[in-house]
Specification:
CATH topology: TIM Barrel
CATH class: Alpha Beta
Number of strands: 8
CATH superfamily: Metal-dependent hydrolases
Strand order of the largest sheet: 1-2-3-4
Shape: globular
Number of helices: 17
Radius of gyration: 20 Å
Number of domains: 1
CATH architecture: Alpha-Beta Barrel
Length: 354
């Protein structure tokens, strides 16, 4: 690498670290720091297969899907009180603030915490909202919630969760989601819950097209009225679906490192992101379950820029698309767009970007 190229690469890296960011696909329970998890386990007398921070970091590192599920459920089981929920939310938001992530639309599986820890849904939401208020006051960052539901649980119970989410749209809930294993659980099974959301004006943002192919995405569009797709990378297997997503400009919440870890893509260099962009699709970058996959939103931008030759304009465009795809009320979105744009304008002067 020439000195000029190296200087440009270092400049872009500094730019990415400093730039304002917006994240659309990140799981709150999957964002628990290992140190926090160990503290919660000790406080709540939950047995983990590790005892020290060093052992915990090694256990936390992604190995395979079964191990990922084991760690995820163990982390969720350590959350036993509203104070625990508030703690993980505040930890998460402090981490987002350190990356200059101005707004995060966070997926949260409230029904799991009710099932594992017995925490009432309203108590969970109140705890998260205390953390949201503190983070906005102290760090200037905001968060809204996508309340999702695991596919392997009872679709009828999901209808009740959807009604609860609809009733609390004024309390920071901006979408209804659907997570868990795609294979064997097509979107149509959950039509009733998303119909409750649709009638109330609560947007639909299900996971689809990650471990299952185009039919999962098509089902999310047809049966769940999806306005964004969590992952969606396997749309490329169906040209007609690609054309529909492009024509409708349905945002895809792409999480490259997660896709590589879960073997949706064989390696970062072989990730389909460039093909998604070349197809004219609406692509946003996200971290999914950052500590479990050994990444952050900043890392996703750094790795993507390095692997696929993105420049200053490319990364700015991705952030602006993410900001535009948020589900905030009109005034909140306008304010976020202005903050992000102003942040980039300030950085463009500092980095002499035209």
């Amino acid at each position: 690498m020439s000195d000029e190229s190296r200087g440009g690469s270092e400049s872009l890296e500094s730019f990415i670290r400093a730039m304002p960011k917006v994240e659309l696909h990140v799981h709150l329970e999957g964002s628990i720091r290992p140190e926090t998890l160990l503290d919660l386990a000790e406080r709540n007398s939950v047995d983990l297969p590790v005892r020290s921070i060093a052992e915990l970091h090694d256990w936390y590192a992604f190995r395979d899907f079964d191990h990922f599920v084991e760690v995820y459920l163990a982390a969720a089981a350590c959350i036993r009180t509203p104070a625990d929920v508030e703690r993980i939310a505040l930890d998460f938001l402090e981490g987002q603030a350190a990356q200059n992530v101005l707004h995060s639309e966070v997926t949260y599986t409230a029904s799991t915490q009710r099932m594992l820890g017995g925490i009432p849904l309203d108590d969970q939401l109140a705890a998260i909202n205390r953390a949201r208020a503190a983070a906005e006051r102290e760090h200037g960052v905001t968060m809204s919630l996508t309340i999702d539901y695991p596919r392997h649980l009872d679709p009828d119970e999901f209808v009740g969760v959807a009604r609860w989410a609809v009733d609390r749209m004024s309390e920071g809930i901006t979408a209804l989601g659907l997570g868990g294993p795609e294979v064997g659980f097509p979107p149509g099974l959950f039509r009733a819950a998303f119909e409750v959301a649709r009638e109330a004006g609560l947007p639909s943002v299900p996971h689809a097209g990650e471990t299952e192919g185009p039919e999962s995405i098509r089902g999310a569009l047809r049966h769940l009225n999806a306005v964004r797709i969590g992952h969606g990378v396997r749309c490329l297997e169906d040209p007609e679906l690609v054309a529909e997503l492009r024509d409708r400009q349905i945002p895809l919440e792409v999480c490259p490192t997660s896709n590589v870890c879960l073997k949706v893509a064989p390696s970062f260099a072989e990730h389909p992101l460039p093909r998604l962009l070349d197809a004219g699709l609406y692509v946003t970058l996200n971290s999914d379950d950052p500590p479990m996959f050994g990444t952050t939103l900043t890392d996703e931008y750094l790795k993507t820029a390095g692997a696929f030759g993105l420049d200053f304009g490319d990364v700015r465009g991705m952030v602006m698309r993410a900001a535009s795809a948020t589900l905030l009320p009109a005034a909140g979105k306008a304010n976020l767009m202005e903050r992000v744009s102003r942040g980039f304008d300030d950085l463009s002067t500092a980095f002499a970007v035209t």
